[in-house]
Every structure is written in C-alpha cells, then in structure tokens.
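Tokens for Glycerophosphoryl diester phosphodiesterase membrane domain-containing protein. Go.
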Amino acid sequence: MTTTDDPFVFLAPGHSVDRACSIYMRRWSLITRLALIEVIPQIMLTLSLKKTLVLATSQWIVPNMNDIWNSMSTMRIVLLSIEYALCCLSGIIVQAAIIQVVIEYYANKYSSFKASLRLAFDRFGAILCFKLLYVTALLIVSIAVGGSLYYLLLLHNFARVDGLAFVALLIILTASAIVAYVILSLAVGLPIIMVEKRSSIGALKRSFELVSGYRCYIFCSICLMSLLVGIGVVIYRIMVGFMFGFSFFGAVFYALSALVTLPLQTILTNILYFSLRVRKEGLNGETLAGEMEENNRGIGNYNNVSIEEADCEAPYL
C-alpha cells in the first residue's frame, strides 16, 4: 500500500495535492452541484457588472471609474451590494458542505447533497463568526500598515526625514510576514468547526495549536495547489477569451472555472487538517467515525450511513 492508498497517513505536499484531485474526481458530481450554489450568484454578479460597464460606455472596453460610478443609481448600488453579500454567504455554505463531503469520504460514509447542506447550515453561525474574526484580524493589520505608511509619507513631505524608504520597506515586509503567519495559522479552521463542532473562538485556538510547527508544510501545499490551479485557469481563460472574447458568454464561462478551483482549494484544506491530526494525534477511521456520530447526533434527518450500508463503492484512494 502506497502513501496515497491509506487515507490516514501524513501526506507530503505533492501527495496532498494528488489526493485533493483524486477526491474531486471521485465525487465530482456531488461536489459540482454544491459548487454551483456559489457559482450561480457569482455569474449573476458578473453579468450585472458587465451590464453596468455597457451602460457606462456602450462598448466592451475598460471605462473610467468615475463614469461607472456616476452612471449607477443608488438602487443599482444596493442591488449589487446584496448580490455580493449573497455570493459571500453562499460561498461559506458551499465550503462547509464540500468539507463535509471530504469528511465522509475519509470516514467511509455515504454523502448526499441534502445531508451535506444540512450540516453546513448547522455550522453556519460558527463558520460565519470565524470568517468575520479572520477578516477582522487581517483588516487590523492592513489599517496599521496603511496608517504607518501614511505617517511616513507625511514625514517625507513635511519633515524631509532621510531613510524613510527603508523604514517603509521594513514595515511592508513585517506586515506581509504577519499576514502570512495569520493565514497559515488559521488555514484549517473550517475543517475544525465541521469535524469537531467547535465555536469560532475555539476553532481559532485549535487551529493555532494544530498547525504549530507545520506552517511551512501548509505553505508549500497551498502554493503547489495554487500553482496547479493557476496554470489551469490561465489556459482555460485564454481558450474562453479566444472563443467568446469579452461577451456575456465569455463572462459566464470565465465564472465556471470556479466549479473546479473552489472545490480543489477547499478539499486541500481538509486534507491538510487530517494529515496534521494523523501526525500529531494518530487519527484513524474509527476515531473519526466516532466523532462524526457524536457531533452530528440530532441534526435534522442526517443519516450516518456507511458506504457498505448504502451499497455504494468504497471511496478510499
């Protein structure tokens, strides 16, 4: 049995990406249907923005932003804001549902569209709070950096202090390191909420604890997946641009790339979570199945059914 045959082993970055692709291919029908819940609002938002550009310029060119803003009514701005909010909320639900599919994959449990969404909605509050805390932390860092750079700019303009460029560069590098540290430390927060049913604060603490000593591993895995996905998206968009240009059809097909990119990135996050638990805690199938049964008890009509009981093919790699 090779490294990728056993689901409960610590996977190297390359094997993690390989397993993410394998899980996507094995559950692509279910995962694609879930991803459509987010992609459809994205397409609607994209088409709305395209329509705004057409109204502002009457041509498929990049217009002046002042022209766009002046051409938009208050109602139009409100509607676009609502569409964007729906995209964000649907994205949270879809991520949680896809994570649940991967959890059931590891636990050798049967996955269904309704059950995955049911559990995603059950964890929605905790995940939303986690996302808000995550964004708030990054926003605080951004404000601190922006304020520092603005202060340095004022010093440069009025006091003509030497060496400010070096200080500004140092601030930017420090802020980048802090942002990277926070992102990597919270990379497995969503799987923690879905598997262990922790609160948003509990997931923050647990994520920092779990990734301790393995941030470089997470960084390499995410970069490898991003490189793979990025190359695929570039090739796909070149083909779409060649066939449809900047038409409405082109906008739709551009957005459809998220049917692959979103699930792969979400699946990888879950794989990293399981790999870390295997390495640090010796996680196995029996333990995971017990956690699922305990944490999902009493949630709607959720059925903790094994693949064998559902008379389906076992999903192990």
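The chain is about 80% helix and 0% strand.
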